[in-house]
Design goal:
- There is one protein chain.
- With about 170 residues, the protein is mainly α.
- Helix 6 runs antiparallel to helix 7.
- The radius of gyration is 17 Å and the shape is globular.
């Protein structure tokens, strides 16, 4: 059910905030970060899924309520937005024209404005990851997109998304 914020309705799916990392028994976060030589512990796959889903929700909401403070509204009403979700959200919005141009050339017989909003959002998010996230193989981005489509859309959406993103991926290797 929609939540109200300053007189506007918000997309009301609850995504639990990413607040902790799990490490193998007997190992602490500081051990892992020291081993990797970074100040940030690595994101586990399940955390990346949650973070990607946060980005999806923000991008989906942006289609209906395009405003600059969606991250703050999400933080206030649902939970803390992860850094990775913020990176995806801002990255997709910053590259929207390029992403849409690529999607339009691969989504045969479908104009982007005729696609279901869930499918369009998932496609933009996955294509951004395929093009701009270096440590993520295309196959993982595609699989995650299909899973999001199954959760928030339909099996037909998932099949369409798989086909479009698969074609994009194949063209990169040719």
């Amino acid at each position: 059910r929609p939540q109200q914020h300053a007189g506007k309705q918000l997309f009301a799916h609850h995504i639990p905030p990413v607040t902790h990392l799990q490490f193998p028994e007997g190992q602490r976060a500081d051990d892992e970060t020291r081993r990797l030589g970074t100040g940030v512990a690595p994101a586990r796959d399940d955390q990346r899924n949650e973070q990607r889903e946060q980005a999806f929700i923000l991008l989906f909401e942006y289609l209906f309520l395009p405003q600059d403070d969606l991250v703050a509204i999400y933080d206030e009403n649902i939970g803390t937005v992860s850094d990775y979700a913020k990176e995806l959200y801002t990255g997709v919005l910053a590259n929207l024209d390029k992403l849409d141009e690529t999607l339009a050339s691969y989504s045969k017989k479908w104009k982007l404005n005729r696609l279901p909003k869930v499918s369009l959002t998932v496609l933009r998010l996955a294509l951004y990851e395929m093009e701009f996230v270096d440590d993520l193989p295309d196959s993982v981005a595609i699989n995650e997109a299909v899973e999001l489509a199954k959760k928030y859309g339909s099996q037909e959406d998932a099949s369409f998304i798989n086909g479009v993103l698969g074609a994009v991926s194949r063209s990169k290797t040719e």
